Amino acid sequence: xxxxxxxxxxxxxxxxxxxxxxxxxxxxxxxxxxxxxxxxxxxxxxxxxxxxxxxxxxxxxxxxxxxxxxxxxxxxxxxxxxxxxxxxxxxxxxxxxxxxxxxxxxxxxxxxxxxxxxxx
Length: 120
Fold this sequence. Notes:
Layout: H1 7-19, E1 24-27, E2 32-36, E3 41-45, E4 50-51, H2 55-59, H3 64-74, H4 79-82, H5 93-99, E5 105-107, E6 117-119
Antiparallel strand pairs: 1-2, 2-3, 3-4, 5-6
């Protein structure tokens, strides 16, 4: 699979997907879900990229609650293909490569100065 997400991020998202298997899900409408975990309930709104736990809004990657909702909405068979649509664009492989495309030059520290500077 040629993902638009970085491998480490993709692995984290798939781990979140595995953790979502323990949640009980109830669909509302328009991509809204209620998820029941071991200790409390969470509301997920797929169209707003939000979950009541707040993790999705902060990290910009779907946590287990969102992964359960995405899996229910699209079906488990296409989950890997659709999950990247719910990750913020700034976390994609193309943006990462664009950010680090320029050369980073090393400047050695001077005697007595124990700092190392990097200049773009």
